[in-house]
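Chain A, query sequence.
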Amino acid sequence: MANWQYFKFFPSRCLPMLKPIAVLLSCQLVGEAISRGLNLPLPGPVLGLALLFLLLLWRGERETSVLAASERGAIGGIADRILAILGLLFVPAGVGMIDHLGILSTNAPGFVSVLVASVFLTLLVTVLVFLGVERLTGKSGESQ
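Chain A, predicted structure.
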């Protein structure tokens, strides 16, 4: 166990968050290194997410581990905190869109048509997947 006396400048409520954040960032770093090192067409964070998934399958059942996958576990707690502020991650994308508003306005019909088509395609695929799962499980949507 690390000697936490060297981290007196951190508020005590931040200390339990350091290990799970380090695990998440390490998985992303390893995924990025693999992606760039092997020149794969897959983004590094996607490989990092797959690595995190494998780590959770391997070590996630232990309740005392940093990788405890339960809601009360360290990774589950930090995931809830990250999801709570997820909206802030869209601010840079929104600022970038406003910065390039001229390009967006000249290509507006194309953007709108792609947006509408992707919404309908998403709905269609969702319905098809639902029907396929319903057929596989043999259960209808009616509850008794």
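The CA atoms of residues 120 and 126 lie 10 Å apart. The first helix runs from residue 15 to 37.
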